[in-house]
Every structure is written in C-alpha cells, then in structure tokens.
Amino acid sequence: MALVVQKFGGTSVGNPERIREVARRIAETRGAGHRVVVVVSAMGHTTDQLLDLAHQVCRRPPRRELDMLLSTGEQVSIALVAMALEDLGVPAISLTGAQVGIHTDGMYTRARIRRISTGRIGEELEAGRVVVVAGFQGITDGWDITTLGRGGSDTTAVALAAALQADVCEIYTDVVGVFTADPRVVPHARLLPVISHGEMLELASLGAAVLQPRSVELAAQYGVVIHVRSSFERREGTRVVPEANLEKAMVVTGVTHDRNVAKVTVIDVPDRPGVAFRLFSELAAAGINVDMIVQTAKQQATTDLLFTVARTDLEQTLEITRRVAAELGTRDVRHDDTVGKVSIVGAGMVSNPGVAARMFGALAAQGINIQAISTSEIKVSCLIDEQRLEEAVRAVHDAFAPGAASEQPALIQPR
Amino acid sequence: MALVVQKFGGTSVGNPERIREVARRIAETRGAGHRVVVVVSAMGHTTDQLLDLAHQVCRRPPRRELDMLLSTGEQVSIALVAMALEDLGVPAISLTGAQVGIHTDGMYTRARIRRISTGRIGEELEAGRVVVVAGFQGITDGWDITTLGRGGSDTTAVALAAALQADVCEIYTDVVGVFTADPRVVPHARLLPVISHGEMLELASLGAAVLQPRSVELAAQYGVVIHVRSSFERREGTRVVPEANLEKAMVVTGVTHDRNVAKVTVIDVPDRPGVAFRLFSELAAAGINVDMIVQTAKQQATTDLLFTVARTDLEQTLEITRRVAAELGTRDVRHDDTVGKVSIVGAGMVSNPGVAARMFGALAAQGINIQAISTSEIKVSCLIDEQRLEEAVRAVHDAFAPGAASEQPALIQPR
C-alpha cells in the first residue's frame, strides 16, 4: 500500500463534469489499495476572473487582500472534489492551506513554504479518508492567508509529498508529459519518459510551463519522484527522478523557450565594485528574480549593465532601477519587452565541449542575432528578438536532433 | 467617537460598482470620526451559484463540504471591499470568520455562534484600520469552517456589535426599512421608524425577511440597537430598540406573511404522554425548527398531530416523522407544501382582547379557510392556502389600519 499525492491543475477541474472525472481517477487509485492525498488548483479561469474583479474596485490592490481573494478559488475546488468523491462512495475531506498547516513567510502573492504540519492529514488518512488539500495557499504565523504565486499548486503537492514521505507525487496536467521542445512549435518533438530533477529544473525555469520551478527545486532537495501525466489521456507521461536513478545523461535533453522576458539596460554605470550588488539586492528585496546579467566593458570609467526579468515584473523593476541608477549618477535606463529566450538543457553538456557553439551556429545560420548569452553546467540560453523565437526553437532542435549531423552523437532521444 | 458595526447584504455588494459605493459609505462614517467594523455577505447570487455547482457533482453534498464551499462567497466580498477602501485611501483589512475567531458549534450549514474573540479586531481598530469581516461563517474548535444559515451575516453583525459593545449595528439592505406589511402586497403599507426587539423578532420569524430572527434574538439578549437602512437610498430607515426605549406599545405593529411553510400531519397517533416529545426532540436533534403545532382530539384513543416546518426542511422532516410514526404504530403521515402563513404582530396585543377575533373575522369575510392557528403574547398566526395569501395580508392589514373601523383604535401608524 503506497501513499500517493495526486495534483490536478485548473483545466483538470475546469467544470463539474471534469471534477467528476478527476474523482473517478482518485477513486481508482484508492481502489488499488493506496492512501491518497489530492492537491487541486482553482477551476479553469477562476484566478483570472478574481484578478479582474480586484482591478475593477482598486487600481493597485494590496497584496494581502489579493491573497485573501485568490485563495477562495482553490477552496471552491477542494469542496467540490470532496463532494464528487463522496458521491462515488469514497470518504473524503477537504482542507484549506490554513487547516493543513502549510506555514509560509509573509511575502504575499509569492510566499514560500517554511514548514508543513502533517497532524491533521495523518489523522484523516488514518480514518480512511481521501484528503483533498487546497493548492497554492498557505498561512503566516499571524494567521494571514498567503499564496505561492502562479503554479503554486505544484509546489504544494511536492512539499506535501516530501513532508508525508509519499511514494510518488503525480502531477496531472493538460499535456501528456515533458517533450524535447514545445510540440506546438516543433511538431516532431518527442515525449521524454524520464528526466532528472536538474534538467527539469532548467526546463521549468526556462518556460516549459509543465511544472513550477520551485516545485522541481523542492523535489530535487527532498528526492521526491514527480510523475507528470495527462488528466485527459491514459498515457504514461514523464517521470522526474533524482540524477542517480538515471542510467546515463543525455547531452541535450530538450530545447525550450520563454516569452515572459524583458530586457533592461542601464547605460554608463560607474565601473566600480558594489554597483551590481546595490541594484540586484534591491530587486531581490522586492522579490524580483533577475535572470541573465551581462556587463559590457567600455573604454572608459563606465560600463553598460544588461539584465532580464519576467515581463510581469518589468514595471516594478524599472521603478527600482531608475531610482538606484539616479543615485549612482546615471539616468539612462532602457528597456525592451519584445525579446524572447531560447535554451538548450542537458545534464551531459558539461562533458561535451562545443555544444554551445553548435547552438550559436544554428541561430547564425538563420540570421538570428543573439543579444545576450547565459550558461550553466546543464543549459545554454540565448536572448533574441521575440519575433524570431519559434524559428529559433526549430533550428536549434533540428541542430541537435538525431540524424541532423552524422558526426554529432544522437543527442535527443527518449530512453 | 462611536464604534459602529455596518453590515452590507448580497445585493449591496452585487457588483464592482456597488462595492465601490459601499466603500464610499464606509469612508463617510469613518470620515465623521467613528471606528468602523464592516460585515459583508457574498456578492449577489454567488451562494446560489455555488449550491448549483455542488449539486452538479454530488447528489447529496455533505454539509461540512457545503460550508467549505459557501464560505468562499463572503471571503471574496471582504477582500474586494477592503481593496475598494484602500483605493479611497482608507486603511482597511479583511478577516475571515476563522481569523476573527467566530467560534461556533459543529452544526454545519446552520451553526450557532458560541463565542467571539475580539483580540485581532481590537488590534486592527487600534492601528486605525477599518476591519472588514466575512459574515455568515465561523469555525469549530477543530478548525472546521461552518456557516450560520441563510441570512447569517445579520447574526454575525449583531454578535460582533454585542462582543465589541458597539454603539449601533447598522444593517444596510435592499429595502428602506420595516413596514407595517410587505409593500409589494399592500401598497399603502407604512414605514415604521422604530420597533421593539420583541416585535421585530416576531416579524423576522414570520417571514418579513428584513432581518434574520437569530440576529434579532441576539440583539434583544444583549441590548444591541439595530438600525435597518437602505443601501441605495439615503433615508432614515427603522431602528430596532429594547422595549424600555419605546414610549408606548402599539396594539398591532404590522402584518406579515411567509411562504416557506409546509404542513405535516400524522394521523391516528396514540393519545398518550410522551408522543409529541419523542417526535419533536428527534426533529430538534436534526436542527429542524417546528413552528405551529396543533393536536386535534378525537373520540377514540388516537389523535391527529399537525405541525409546520420550513418548506426547505420538508424532505428531512418527512424522513424522520415517518420513521418515528412507524415506531409508534402509525404509517399515515401526510404533508402539504401549498400552505402559507399570515400573522399580526404587536406588543400591545396582550392587553387588548378581541384582536385575534378581528383577524379571524377579516379572513372569514373573504371566505379564507384557516387551517391552523398559533398565538403568542405579541402575535397571532393563521395557516391558510398559499393561493389566498396576498389577499389575506391585504384584508388583515385593512382591518387594523387607521380609519378602517371607527370603534377600533388607530392600530397601525408610524411614530
């Protein structure tokens, strides 16, 4: 008898019929003798509708009140899923983040989980119930409701799986698994049956949109096996496992792209120590993730500082950057929100020189200009014109695909 | 500087524009130097929509899960009202029933408040904030969410006013106040500027639908002055005050009617002590309020037992009654859900004989048959055919209205 955490996203519980289907899936798992903890998101477009309401009553809704508002979406879903289970004769109970005891910090709209109380869930499982937990939400020590940011239900599911030492965390979603590239852009992209946490983390961060990066980070940290599956099709999906469980690392596992990117450039920053620290620590304090950072040396005492942030953070980023720039003696802050990012990811990259060069070559062959580059041990990212993004993904995918060039190893293939 | 509790119903917060208007009202009160605690209901038809969703996924939704579901409606409202206040520059904070500490028993969908913690509200008021509290909901000692039943937000408001020793509890609603009869039925009905808790309690119980009975009961118990006002018009409305504050009692204050009535008759019950106790204690245990009870003596060892319940409780009532009846040796349980109730209410009735007789006379003159009668010190109710209900209200109102008969005192008039 295993303990299984199953997470169903917003599309999977988008209407009453789908909720009944989700209940049938859960009932099957329970029928096979397993104990089940379910995590659900808000139905369909609920979150967007609530945000729209918020903006109709307030120009800049306070983040605390946004979380009070948005957390209702998941609360509706858990009640309905528990009801649908009861209708099938499966004893079930719904619990909010507060009721479970998902304790977070006080960063409203993007809170981080600090600890999870497992007492109540344990009691309910003991009593033979399926426990249906609201994803995406938590509670501060002062009992204020927080949310974990977009896609936070994945994080809830993985954190619960870690806290409960579950055997597997199944993430049901509207795609059948993780592909070598977005199949809407690269029709011949292949499904990956297994991938490492590290690779998935890069893919998730880079916009593959299957799992929230924070959830993969947590899974890696606690060794949680994530099984990404379709809510609508009975296919095997993709298992995300610790590196050690993989027989061998692929050089390039997948190609991914991201449109939620904006570029900010500060012109003529004084070229002295502490400048970058000053700016990026203020951005971090505001909870803004800075991605690529490039500093271009000039022939004088100043330098240009280029970095990228999520487009959704651009407004706040510019506010902070302009203030800091003015204090540093420059007022020239430029930005561009028509850029996109294409990346290759693969755990074997570090031991295969020339991979980055091959990517640059593929882009150059299409006449696509690279505005910035960033690399890690298992990924290479290039910032380019958003207009050329899909073309770039196809070119890079083809450059690494099996048979693309005979002198190259067959880089992308499912195992 | 007074402490004012203001409650806004579902229609008052029915859409973003109305929420902004509610925020302006609150801002005015605060601008006049008062501390304000606001209680709000779910927006418009939210509760009905949620109930509809529940019934689409489950034939008999568990009450605990219904409360989990329904309580989201008020949570949405409080967040939006707090946001709309912030937008006007008024510092505000929303709190759920759980966050306030509105502790109830565990009777889901019709819970009763046991105690209220005032600590958090006190701190927020101290910090200069308007506190926006979710009506209708509470929390059990085991941290499960409960709701107080339809109209429960009134109860929340009055209970908070009592716990905080507020100067007044203003209930904003979609009517301008309490009338001598329903103005949709009796166009010349008059607005009552003041009424006693006792009279209002009878009116509320009898279906005047302006205030929830439980809220008036609480107000009477703790001496809370309720001020019923329109959300949409700037009129003075009706004050509901302790009896002692009234100069004199009117014989008949108002005429009211109720359609949410069903009649149940148990035929041939053994005529021995303990039978009524047996049945009505089981109904009470299920949380069902029994209203009129009439026992008709026969020429033999059995009797017929007639009683009324809310139509919404009929199904459950029949289940229990049939079981108990079978145990008592009779299976003949009849019911009728096409009845209605017309009542007169007035604190001066007890010292004016002949009031009941005049009411029966008015109904007889219209050829309306009375199926059952119940009386208290300040009211007389008649159960009649629902089809004749409006006609009955008009006839009774006219019989007691000023000038209707010169030998009668002018019974219904605003003071």
Automatic annotation (TrEMBL), chains A, B:
<dbReference type="InterPro" id="IPR054352">
    <property type="entry name" value="ACT_Aspartokinase"/>
</dbReference>
<dbReference type="InterPro" id="IPR005260">
    <property type="entry name" value="Asp_kin_monofn"/>
</dbReference>
<comment type="pathway">
    <text>Amino-acid biosynthesis; L-lysine biosynthesis via DAP pathway; (S)-tetrahydrodipicolinate from L-aspartate: step 1/4.</text>
</comment>
<keyword id="KW-0028">Amino-acid biosynthesis</keyword>
<feature type="domain" description="ACT">
    <location>
        <begin position="344"/>
        <end position="415"/>
    </location>
</feature>
<comment type="pathway">
    <text>Amino-acid biosynthesis; L-threonine biosynthesis; L-threonine from L-aspartate: step 1/5.</text>
</comment>
<dbReference type="InterPro" id="IPR001341">
    <property type="entry name" value="Asp_kinase"/>
</dbReference>
<dbReference type="Pfam" id="PF00696">
    <property type="entry name" value="AA_kinase"/>
</dbReference>
<keyword id="KW-0220">Diaminopimelate biosynthesis</keyword>
<keyword id="KW-0808">Transferase</keyword>
<comment type="similarity">
    <text>Belongs to the aspartokinase family.</text>
</comment>
<dbReference type="InterPro" id="IPR036393">
    <property type="entry name" value="AceGlu_kinase-like_sf"/>
</dbReference>
<keyword id="KW-0457">Lysine biosynthesis</keyword>
<feature type="domain" description="ACT">
    <location>
        <begin position="264"/>
        <end position="335"/>
    </location>
</feature>
<dbReference type="InterPro" id="IPR041740">
    <property type="entry name" value="AKii-LysC-BS"/>
</dbReference>
<dbReference type="InterPro" id="IPR045865">
    <property type="entry name" value="ACT-like_dom_sf"/>
</dbReference>
<dbReference type="InterPro" id="IPR018042">
    <property type="entry name" value="Aspartate_kinase_CS"/>
</dbReference>
<protein>
    <recommendedName>
        <fullName>Aspartokinase</fullName>
        <ecNumber>2.7.2.4</ecNumber>
    </recommendedName>
</protein>
<comment type="function">
    <text>Catalyzes the phosphorylation of the beta-carboxyl group of aspartic acid with ATP to yield 4-phospho-L-aspartate, which is involved in the branched biosynthetic pathway leading to the biosynthesis of amino acids threonine, isoleucine and methionine.</text>
</comment>
<dbReference type="Pfam" id="PF22468">
    <property type="entry name" value="ACT_9"/>
</dbReference>
<dbReference type="InterPro" id="IPR001048">
    <property type="entry name" value="Asp/Glu/Uridylate_kinase"/>
</dbReference>
<dbReference type="Pfam" id="PF01842">
    <property type="entry name" value="ACT"/>
</dbReference>
<keyword id="KW-0547">Nucleotide-binding</keyword>
<dbReference type="GO" id="GO:0004072">
    <property type="term" value="F:aspartate kinase activity"/>
</dbReference>
<dbReference type="InterPro" id="IPR002912">
    <property type="entry name" value="ACT_dom"/>
</dbReference>
<keyword id="KW-0067">ATP-binding</keyword>
<keyword id="KW-0418">Kinase</keyword>
